[in-house]
TrEMBL record:
It comes from the Bacteria. Belongs to the metallo-dependent hydrolases superfamily. TatD-type hydrolase family. PANTHER family: D-AMINOACYL-TRNA DEACYLASE, HYDROLASE. A divalent metal cation 1 binds at residues 5, 7, 94, 203. This is TatD family hydrolase. Keywords: Hydrolase, Metal-binding. One of its GO terms (cellular component) is cytosol. One of its GO terms (molecular function) is metal ion binding. A divalent metal cation 2 binds at residues 129, 153.
Amino acid sequence: MIDTHAHLDFSEFDPDRAAVFAAMAAVGVTGAIIPGVSPSHWDKQLAVAAEFDCYFALGIHPWHCPPVLEPAMSELEALVNRHLGNKRLVAIGECGLDKRHSQPWPLQVAYVQAQLDLAKRTDLPLILHVVKAHGEMLALLKASRPARGGVVHAFSAGPEVACEYIKLGFKLGVGGLVVNPNAKKLHKTLSEMPLDAFVLETDSPAMTPITSAVSRNDPTNLVQFVDEIAQIRKKTNVLISEQLQANARQLFDL
Ligand SMILES: [Zn+2]
């Protein structure tokens, strides 16, 4: 299994990163995609991805947009172009819209639009972070029509919203929320949408599942997410992990 969204470059993993990768391997989590968050993080992100043989995405997270678009977007495009032949670069992101965050809305829109355009120019899929802004994001995607689609990470909405993204070529990232019995809309989406619409993720070190005894999330938790999805779909966990792994391979061309 591959964790399609894990910030294994974050400082929370500095004390024991090698041990985390060893624990992942022990439970069958053989790799991860490390998403980009901000220009100041890219160097460390690329170093960790190289050291631990991870895939990565390059982008600017809506929480971390520099106050003006330039030179940040030019730097991003130059870095992406430098890595276009690198098999580890698999997406643009994470980028998106977050109405719960205080970043000025016009700035968030400008950055996500610029990254939708970049994904098109570089023929890469997108990793999207969308909080309380599905209507606005869907409108941008309908106007922009990214050729390779992407994933809406940490998806929590119901089947109607899910369907709109799927029609645009997007998959839904499922993580720690799945083991929360109160995540009714997500559970409805998981039981009604086709299995090829989902990929697995943790968003480590954030989004710790309520079942966890420790505060830091890590990719070994994928195992329990698969068990939960298997119960919802009344399938074996082997079938679920194989299908969701195949989805990730297809989406990100792994
Ligand atoms: Zn993230």
